[in-house]
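Email to the structure team, subject: F-box domain-containing protein model.

Hi all, the expression group asked for a predicted structure before they design truncation constructs. Nothing fancy, just the tokens so they can compare against earlier work. One-line instruction: predict F-box domain-containing protein, return tokens.
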Amino acid sequence: MGSTMSTTAPGAHTNCVPKTSPRSSRGRRRHRSRSRGRRRQSPLGLFIRGRRGSDDESEDDLSVSSAMSWEATNAPPSPRKPPAPEFGTTLLAHRRPEVYVELTPDLMLYVLGYLDPKARHRAAANPACRQLRDRVTKNREVWAHLCSSTPWRIHRSDLEHRPVNALRRLHRTVVEATDSVDTAPIADIARIMSDHARVAGVQVRCFRTLADRLHCETFRKNALDCGVASSVVRALWKFDECDDVQVVALHCVVFLARPIGGAEGMVYHRGMASRGLDAFLGESGGIAAVLRSMRVHLKNSNVQAMGCWSLVNLALNHQQKLALLALDGLDAVLAAMAHHPSTLEVQFRALFALINLVIPEAGSVSTNTMDCGENAAHARVVRGVLAAMRHFPESEKLVRCGCLVLHNLSLDDKNVPHLLAFGVARPLQRAARSHKDADVQRSAVSTLRRLRVAVAPEVDVLQPTLRMDGSR
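Reply from the structure team: attached below.
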């Protein structure tokens, strides 16, 4: 029986089995293991390294490299290995993730700046690779920069002789301390402020937490008993050049100086028995620190407004008011008004502080009377009050304080002719016509009567006696 052979045309389609690679599976694995050991440089990487050595570098590359370069030294690069790539050149590869990017310390600091303090420490202290460990985690300059930069701002002199492990522990402790402040009791907050008295960032965080809680009278009393006032005063002296620290510290002084069991603006001639308030007295006390802060930051409206507000409550105690007048506190308030004539908050707080400061205090030797000439403090007070009332005629709270200041000055019969000479009658009449507030009405009408000036007929005279201590 014969066999037949089928023939196919040359153009016909046939199902062919694909040919297998002649290389065995063991050979393929060996080839892959050898290829993994070599790292091929991409074309862009070769281009970047070639551009670094060329002389025709563009102005943009030079500006990026010079603006974000690491601390330059005069030592020449080591001849054994090529210098590390410039920080700016690595940014050229941001669209090519497959390009190898050198982890320089300044690159890591740039990236860490976008993280919050807790995540920043976690990323720097827990290296993900050996290169990150050698160049960041074990780099002393990196941790010194993290400790001295925002938000901690530890002075460089406090970090000079500390090794990298000590700097890393310091950074961890300040991060953990500030992380627990929000929910910590007052005793723990006082301890944190004492332990980190030289760290501006910790002090600011504690002051902000205290300012939110000191509205409560019970918390305020516990804070005074725990010595928080001393910590606040110490921070005012220590960080006298940091305006943000001064603002939050002065805000705490506002509440700490507020009388226990009384409202703001209530005068206490018998004194307030509290050992915490002793921190405000003395040459290095809180009153001197507040006045120094106002003089150093004279152009900062926030410091001036908060400083005048703290003087409002500091002047409520007889002993503190004597110390305030002895340290020329009246001049500090007038300087704030003169340097910020168009800032409503500064003018209002300054007038609020003047309400009690212009009242003569028993036991003080006053040279501020208007008989001493136009440069006397009380004469400058009248000019400042009239300027503020003229600049902000629609602000009822400011006009109220201005009328109270003029009323307290009119209580001294020697000041009456000087007040008339300054022309205070017209502003008082205008205030009584424009504002229906009871305090404005009573203070303006009472002062006009002392000056023996007719009250406008459309003004309704209110009979109740006015309390001239600033309380409402």
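Residues 48 and 92 are 8 Å apart (CA to CA). Residues 87-179 form one domain. Ping us if the truncation boundaries need rechecking.
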